[in-house]
Design a protein that fits this description.
The complex is a heterotetramer of chains A (320), B (618), C (182) and D (152).
Chain A: H1 4-39, H2 49-58, E1 64-65, H3 68-86, E2 89-90, E3 93-94, H4 102-108, H5 110-122, H6 126-157, H7 162-168, H8 179-195, H9 207-210, H10 220-245, H11 254-257, H12 259-286, H13 292-317
Antiparallel strand pairs in A: 2-3
Chain C: H1 3-16, E1 19-23, H2 32-36, E2 48-49, E3 58-62, H3 67-79, E4 85-89, H4 91-95, E5 117-119, H5 126-142, H6 147-153, H7 155-167, H8 170-181
Parallel strand pairs in C: 1-2, 1-3, 3-4, 4-5
Helix pairs in contact in C: 1-5
Chain D: H1 3-6, E1 11-14, E2 17-21, H2 27-36, E3 41-50, E4 55-64, E5 69-78, E6 84-85, H3 94-105, E7 109-110, H4 135-142
Parallel strand pairs in D: 2-5, 6-7
Antiparallel strand pairs in D: 1-2, 3-4, 4-5
Classes of the chains: A mainly alpha (320), B mainly alpha (618), C alpha/beta (182), D alpha/beta (152).
């Protein structure tokens, strides 16, 4: 027998957390532009610029579509990224993350990407096709070191569930304090740079080469949806990193402190994802862009070699 | 009843063979004959502890059948494993035949005859209970495949299939001989094996023989040639159905005949038999290399062929690991691969039927012209790329979980990367064929081609929602090996590491999709032409609306540049070197044929001495 | 929310987040880098450069336009989504500037597409460009920047002028003049 | 061999700059000879309108990296419709220059297969670079007569 009241509360919480995720994503867009501007010795836009941009895109008077496959992009990208967010433990709150694991999250992240790719391909613009090609190749490049580190963590913690990994890092026993996973965090942070599509790995977007790549034909509400996807993507990817290495931002246990713990954990989680994003921004602000094969070689040569060393470390360390 | 089935099959083969001039009539007859294995399957459902309503098994097949053949007895009997693989083949086969009815415009009687013979062979293989029966039906299947390959008419395909088929048959036969030498019986159930090296040699030979049919690297060389040069419905059946027979054989002999405990007695590593460990590593390599090679292809069928090799590699990994979790994953992957790869090959056939092209760089923009073909392809591609909105994900997930559970630290990243590589070639198919610039003004594929495709998509959706039903199917198979099925409910699979709840994914996705849909519907939109594109301001009317906008030629050029040097000297080169060495050896060996009777008698004597000595020393 | 408030909100949003595409055929494009970078920093107003017209709100035509380029300008302008604004940049877009007697450059941009703000000067200083942005904000606020509505309303006339320019034919000019007289 | 040695009739304007005035049927020969003797770079082909003489002057300019010398081969053809042989077979890039001169001056080059519209799209009038083309009048007749958009 399903408890309908509980279910309703859960759905409401899920909606609230999703809305919060989107709000934080938009805020991050503003923060990112502000920080980059300060590094460039500019004033930069106001911190709430992300909200204005998205609202503006949704208030555009006319929108164009290249057909029903083109619309997949707007639908799948927002839906997929929100779904992925629901499967992540956020500040120790496990919404659906008990129902899936890291493999599910990695594959759920492909739903928005594939929807986006379908829409971009359906637009028929060659720039979009080239951009998608680059995006997929960047994905192939950064996934190898990332999965190496994640698999090392799975074997170390003997679980594949992200919620359990977060649980096992409670009481400030964060993975990053273990030497091998400190190196792992560095490797994963490089991969995160590619995941966030920040320089030097902003190859798929590359506005000066291929006219912003896959987004070339999107305008108005379609672009608004894609902006939401991109902004939420920042939150999802940094949260994944924080959950893996920084204990998901859990500092107080809920059973001991009650609602205060939720509040503090959320604030710590926010500061941590901001910090992780901040590192990515610093790298972004000062680097030029790689070519695609350079990115592939970077990840598969240098990053992956460190990843293999971590795997060997774990392989030798874990005995049955 | 089985006698009757075989008789009907043989009769059907003769009739459709004679109806070569009337392809439609031959197709319809072949379709009705092809349904029989499926009815047999339904009537045998009690083997899997499934109770179907009586109107679903109105034909009553006996569960075992024997025929005395002089040296041995042919024994056919339904087993849970056979039932499972028969499910794949017998549900795929009628759909393929149905597709062919409109696909062939002329001269198809031989095709249907050979297809029916192939199915008859497969039917026998899946039911066989002794090595003799198994081998006889295996040869029937192999030779009728050869007939179908010859219909394709490509010399390289025929030669490579013939040589690798012969190699496969030799390896299997030699393995059977060793087993018979060891046990003195043909019947699987009566074999009592021990942990001797002879058995290890036999099982290694048998597994490598089946690996040829399963297109495991480096035995895969024939597959791309045959897949890319034969007729589409046959390739769909070959890749989707017949390649599974290789894995059926591996499973039968590794876990049915030899058994997990005996495998472990030849050495284990972290709880996994070394034999299985080797197989898993080979499988992972196959998955990765097949994927990389698939990304490099331009021919749609070659791409799908290499993709098949890569996806079948996952099954090998699962069979190698050998835990209940891994075997469930491998069987699930086999089921998914049967259906999605068949749909992809059939869709390629439908595209060819309408456009006459197989090269990805020459196609484009068919998504709006053939929407139902596109959607069927899209669904299969979701399954191929293991996107969690089809059942493809559950299979891969089980395999990943199995690998992590047994701490396969170096195999799992390769599996995951091969999974990401699948996105690359999957998108190449989608973009190159269905998206982008509309180049052809064609109609949707005919209904008799769409219906099979969509029926084959159905299992992918059913097992997405109810992965637990699939685990139920595997329970009797695992029971036979002394294992228990993994814990599950209809919507959920539990492992020792995590759980996977499809309801959460589905309802979460529906909910978020609803949210996205509201956002998307917030503003009206207008449709624009495909040429109304941002091309740095170039107005299309300047070029008579004739701008080439499809970027699918050499789509992954940077990828090719990076990987090509490592894959330049492929497996084909390896076999060429082996052949060259064999030729040198052969020309040396020819010198012993002196033509003098005395010499020959000395050879015979030497041979006997060696054989007897070997037997004594063993 | 009623329609008026909604459009007011839309105006405010569109004012504070103008994404622009600049058509850099003329020498005026050289004045854009200082406007974008740390000296003048137009991102203060939420403006930044976009790569494609589908995403852009403001169209900067920087300098002279040959008839051949005008074709591309019109194509790009029509690919932009409403509401969209055009800034004519430098003397060349106002009356041809130093190309006043060139056989191949158009003289007055507003005959072909509606221009909301002109910046005079050959070339205009970055201060002038910033000033034009502020002016445009002001106009959007008051609802005066209605170039895109004009383009819909007088579409025939704009199309006629564009066609005349593209064809180079003197007789067609005369024909159309006579049509207008009738 | 330097140009001065090859063609005694050439005049040296200043150091490193040679001018050869010749007839139109000898151009091919001269370019071929220069090409074989180290003048491997064909710089450009230009055209001058000498309206009072009634001639077009075509100037073929070549450069030698070896001698650091610039050679100009100048010929004159009649303005009224005299055509010139294409030198495309010697240097393929001449094709583009010929295309431009054809469009801007109306000179016909025999043997150039690609003599179609180059920069101007749909130009129906006299080639605009000829000196008898009155741009000011054309601008007044054309651009200034395009009407303003009238707002009701």
């Amino acid at each position: 027998m399903v408890n309908y009241i509980d279910l309703t509360i859960q759905i409401l919480v899920a909606m609230g957390v999703t809305a919060l995720g989107f709000a934080i994503g938009m805020l991050f867009n503003g923060i990112a532009r502000k920080i980059t501007a300060r590094i460039h010795n500019r004033v930069g836009p106001p911190i709430y610029q992300g909200y204005i941009d998205v609202l503006k895109l949704f208030t555009k008077k006319t929108n164009i579509s290249h057909g029903w496959i083109f619309d997949f992009a707007a639908l799948f990208s927002v839906a997929g990224i929100a779904l992925t967010f629901l499967f992540l433990p956020v500040a120790g709150v496990t919404l659906l993350s008990g129902e899936g694991d890291i493999f599910l999250i990695l594959y759920l992240l492909a739903i928005p990407a594939l929807g986006f790719a379908l829409g971009a391909g359906a637009s028929g613009n060659p720039n979009a096709a080239v951009g998608i090609m680059r995006a997929l190749m960047t994905m192939l490049a950064y996934e190898l070191p990332l999965v190496m580190v994640i698999i090392a963590m799975m074997v170390y913690y003997d679980t594949t569930s992200l919620a359990v990994i977060v649980q096992k890092q409670a009481n400030m026993q964060w993975a990053i304090f273990i030497p091998v996973f400190f190196i792992g965090a560095l490797v994963a942070d490089m991969a995160l740079q590619g995941m966030l599509m920040e320089k030097p790995f902003d190859i798929p977007i590359a506005p000066h080469e291929i006219a912003s790549g896959p987004m070339v034909e999107f305008g108005g509400k379609h672009l608004g949806a894609l902006m939401l996807y991109k902004m939420m993507g920042i939150v999802v990817e940094t949260t994944l990193f924080v959950d893996l290495f920084l204990g998901g931002g859990v500092v107080l246990s809920v059973s001991q402190f009650g609602w205060l713990a939720y509040l503090v954990n959320f604030i710590v989680w926010f500061l941590l994802i901001l910090f992780v994003f901040f590192i990515a921004l610093l790298i972004n602000a000062v680097f030029p862009r790689f070519r695609i094969e350079q990115a592939l070689k970077f990840y598969w040569k240098y990053d992956a070699i460190v990843g293999i060393l971590i795997l060997i470390w774990i392989f030798v360390g874990v005995t049955i | 009843m089985i006698t009757l089935t075989i008789a009907i099959f043989l009769l059907g083969i003769i009739i459709v063979g004679l109806l070569n001039r009337y392809p439609k009539a031959a197709g319809v007859i072949a379709f009705f004959v092809s349904l029989i294995p499926f009815f047999a399957l339904l009537s045998w459902s009690s083997v899997m502890n499934i109770s179907l309503p009586s109107y679903l098994h109105f034909l009553n097949f006996e569960t075992s059948w024997q025929y005395n053949l002089g040296p041995g007895t042919l024994i056919l009997q339904i087993t849970p494993l056979g039932w499972f693989f028969l499910l794949l083949l017998s549900s795929l086969f009628p759909m393929v035949i149905l597709f062919s009815i409109s696909f062939f415009r002329s001269n198809a009687g031989g095709f249907y005859a050979a297809m029916l013979l192939t199915m008859l062979g497969s039917f026998g293989i899946l039911l066989a209970q002794d090595m003799l029966t198994f081998y006889i039906f295996w040869e029937i299947m192999s030779w009728s495949i050869l007939a179908l390959v010859i219909r394709g008419g490509d010399r390289k395909a025929i030669v490579s299939y013939l040589s690798f088929g012969a190699l496969s048959a030799m390896l299997i036969l030699f393995g059977f001989m060793l087993l018979y030498f060891k046990t003195g019986t043909y019947v699987f159930a009566e074999m009592h094996l021990d942990a001797s090296n002879l058995v290890l040699a036999a099982i290694s030979l048998i597994v490598s023989g089946f690996a040829v049919k399963g297109a495991l690297m480096p035995m895969h060389v024939w597959a791309p040639h045959v897949y890319s040069k034969s007729e589409e419905p046959f390739v769909a059946f070959l890749s989707g159905g017949l390649s599974k027979l290789g894995y059926f054989g591996i499973m039968l002999f590794m876990y049915g005949v030899v058994g997990f405990s005996l495998l472990s007695s030849w050495g284990t590593f972290r709880g996994v038999p070394l034999f299985g460990y080797t197989l898993a590593v080979v499988g992972a390599f196959t998955a990765f290399a097949g994927t990389v090679l698939a990304v490099m292809q331009d021919d749609l069928r070659k791409l799908l062929a290499y993709s098949s090799i890569g996806q079948l590699g996952y099954i090998t990994i699962g069979l190698g690991i050998g835990t209940p979790l891994a075997i469930t994953g491998a069987l699930f992957q086999a089921l998914n691969h049967t259906f999605f790869k068949a749909v992809l090959f059939l869709a390629a056939g439908a595209v060819y039927y309408r456009t006459g092209k197989y090269k990805i760089s020459e196609l484009g923009g068919l998504g709006y012209k053939m929407p139902f073909t596109f959607l069927a392809t899209l669904f299969s591609i979701f399954a191929l790329a293991a996107i969690p909105i089809t059942s493809g994900f559950a299979a891969k997930w089980l395999l990943y979980e199995a690998a992590i559970e047994k701490k396969f630290l170096f195999v799992t990243p390769i599996m995951l990367i091969a999974g990401v590589g699948a996105f690359l070639y999957a998108y190449k198919i989608l973009y190159g064929v269905f998206l982008g610039e509309p180049r052809y003004d064609v109609k949707e594929a005919p209904l008799s081609q769409l219906v099979p495709m969509w029926i084959l998509v159905l299992p992918l959706i059913i097992f997405l929602i109810f992965p637990g039903w699939f685990v139920d199917l595997t329970a009797p198979i695992l029971q036979g090996y002394g294992m228990t099925a993994i814990p599950h409910t209809p919507f959920m699979i539990n492992t020792s590491l995590a759980k996977y709840n499809t309801l959460a994914v589905i309802f979460g996705f529906i909910g978020t999709l609803l949210f996205a849909f509201i956002l998307y519907k917030s503003k009206p939109q207008e449709r624009v032409e495909h040429l109304d594109n941002y091309l740095a301001g170039e107005p299309p009317e300047l070029y008579n609306y004739n701008i080439a906008m499809h970027a699918s030629s050499k789509y992954y050029e940077p990828f090719d540049e990076v990987f090509y040097p490592y894959f330049k000297k492929g497996a084909e080169r390896m076999w060429e070197i082996i052949l060259a060495a064999g030729e040198v050896f052969g020309s040396g060996a020819r010198k012993i044929y002196t033509g003098i009777v005395g010499d020959y008698s000395i050879y015979i004597l030497l041979f006997f001495l060696i054989m007897v000595g070997w037997w004594l020393l063993w | 929310m009623n329609h008026e408030n909604w459009s007011k909100l839309a105006r405010i949003m569109s004012k504070r987040s103008l994404w622009m595409i600049h058509f850099c055929t003329g020498c005026g494009a050289m004045e854009m880098p200082p406007v974008m970078t740390s000296r003048y920093d137009m991102e203060r107003f939420g403006m930044h450069a976009m790569a494609t017209p589908r995403q852009a709100d403001v169209f900067l035509v920087t300098g002279y336009l040959a008839v051949k380029t005008l074709k591309r300008v019109v194509q790009v302008y029509e690919q932009m989504r409403d509401p969209k604004y055009v800034i004519g940049f430098g003397s060349c877009t106002i009356n041809g500037g130093m190309y006043w007697d060139s056989y191949n450059t158009i003289k007055d941009l507003s005959k072909y597409i509606p221009v909301d703000v002109y910046i005079a000067g050959c070339m205009p200083r970055p201060e002038a460009i910033m000033d034009s942005f502020l002016k445009l904000f002001d106009m959007i606020d008051k609802g005066e920047a209605i170039g895109w509505q004009k383009y819909h309303k007088y579409y025939d006339q704009y199309k006629r002028n564009q066609r005349m320019a593209f064809s180079y034919r003197l007789d067609e000019v005369k024909d159309i003049k006579e049509d207008d007289k009738e | 061999m330097m140009a001065k040695e090859l063609f005694p009739e050439a005049q040296e304007i200043r150091k490193g700059r040679i001018r050869i005035e010749t007839q139109k049927d000898k151009v091919g020969e001269i370019i071929k000879k220069l090409k074989d003797n180290g003048y491997e770079h064909f710089v450009m082909l230009s055209c001058v309108d000498w309206i009072k003489e009634g001639k077009f002057e075509l100037v073929y300019q070549m450069w030698s990296y070896q001698y650091k010398e610039h050679v100009m081969i100048s010929i004159k053809i009649n303005r009224d419709g005299e055509s010139m042989l294409s030198m495309r077979h010697l240097f393929p890039q001449i094709e583009t220059y010929e295309r431009e001169i054809h469009e801007m001056f109306g000179v016909n080059f025999i043997g150039n297969p690609n003599l179609k519209e180059f920069i101007l799209e749909g130009w129906p009038h006299m080639p605009p670079m000829r000196k008898d083309f009155d741009t000011e009048k054309f601008v007044k007749d054309f651009y200034y007569k395009i009407p303003e958009v009238k707002e009701e």
